[in-house]
Amino acid sequence: MKSLKTLHLIHAFYTNDESICNLLSGCPRLEELVVERTCEYSVKFFTIKVPSLQRFRIYDDNDEDEFVGYVIDTPSLKYLEIGYLGCPQFSLNALGLLAVYIARVSNVISESLVSVRRLVLNVSTSMTIYPPTGCIFYQLVYLQIYTPEPGWYDLLTWMLEHSPKLQVLKLVGKYRIKPDYHVLGWEWNKPKSVPECLLSHLETFVWRRYDWKREKEEEVATYLLKNARGLKNATFSTGPIEPGQLDKLKQRRRTRKKIGWCAQGF
């Protein structure tokens, strides 16, 4: 398949590790690869070595004990999307990455991530997504973080401290079926000093599904608005208030007044 540029492997069955390598080695011009896997016991290491590959999407909820992980060697890769990945090992060589989306991943540690310009994180905060110690996201200008559970505050702090050129920050709250659901007992570790990106680069701040009732979210919003000295645009959106919920409307107005006062300087 010397002319093939796009390949989608959706719940395919592989004889062994070598069968994957043989298949991909026969596609020397491959530019886009999609891999979706579920329960499959014949592969130990899923190796993807494609020098021409530019776009790669992988969704894997395989929980078989025999499967160890992925070895990805794609020096031309520009766009990477990873979801539902729970394997013990994940090796990535893709130093030219521009945009990455990571969702529900248990272990992605790679220096390749520090080259990205756009990064979307939709991960459990108990999982490890941080690059090795000392790595800085010098190229990152767009960051989007989903906030599905307690602990995302610390992930936000870590990313702000390690993304000195960040220009756009977007937070996306969790949609809750029970609107009165709250998580207690989690404290936010603020940055020890104001991150460089807030002092000189951040221009746009968006918070979708903002919860006006949660003090921790108000604390985060207040900190960002007070310290983002170059901020030009800030947008907060939330769910509608049903008729008869005047207490929520009053709470929202109080919070809006607080946040508005913090934002007067930008």
UniProtKB/TrEMBL annotation:
InterPro entries membership: FBD, FBL13/AtMIF1-like, LRR_dom_sf, LRR_PRU1-like
Name of protein: FBD domain-containing protein
Annotated ranges, domain FBD: 196-262
Source organism superkingdom: Eukaryota
Alphabetical list of Pfam families matching this protein: FBD (PF08387), LRR_2 (PF07723)
PANTHER family in UniProt: EMB|CAB62440.1-RELATED (PTHR31900:SF34), F-BOX/RNI SUPERFAMILY PROTEIN-RELATED (PTHR31900)
